[in-house]
Amino acid sequence: MINLERLKQSRIDNNLSQEDMVKLLNWKSRSQYSKRENGQVSIGADELIAIAKILGYDKKEIGYFFD
């Protein structure tokens, strides 16, 4: 299971807002990202890889976001 608190904290530690993430992911609205970060919508594998890359993690380090 993805540790959403860890994901959120990594975003904050990188001084990125949810709006910044939306722009970097080329998504249309902040609610798309917010719903995932808050657990209302599941994060897909490709989405997690893209988010992790933005936050400075490579594929080998993606396990950091799992409990």
Description:
GO terms for molecular function: DNA binding. This is Transcriptional regulator. Residues 7-62 form the HTH cro/C1-type domain. The chain has helices at residues 4-13, 18-25, 30-37, 45-54. The mean pLDDT is 97. With 67 residues, it is mainly α. The chain has a single domain, classed as 434 Repressor (Amino-terminal Domain), CATH 1.10.260. Helices cover 54% and strands 0% of the residues. The chain contains four helices and no strands.
Short description:
With 67 residues, the chain is mainly alpha-helical. It has four helices and no strands. The mean pLDDT is 97.
Secondary-structure element series:
HHHH
State the separation between the terminal residues, measured CA to CA: 6 Å
Low-confidence stretches: none
List the total number of helices.
4
> Which CATH architecture would you pick?
Orthogonal Bundle
Structural class: mainly alpha
**What percent of the residues sit in helical stretches (DSSP H or I)?**
40-55%
Count of all domains:
1
CATH topology label = 434 Repressor (Amino-terminal Domain)
Query: What is the CA-atom radius of gyration, in angstroms?
Result: 11 Å
| Main sheet properties | none
- Fraction of residues in β-strands: under 5%
Anisotropy-based shape: globular
How many E strands? 0
The whole-number mean of residue pLDDT values reads: 97
Highest-level CATH class: Mainly Alpha
Pfam families: HTH_3 (PF01381)
Protein name: Transcriptional regulator
Domain HTH cro/C1-type: 7-62
GO molecular function: DNA binding
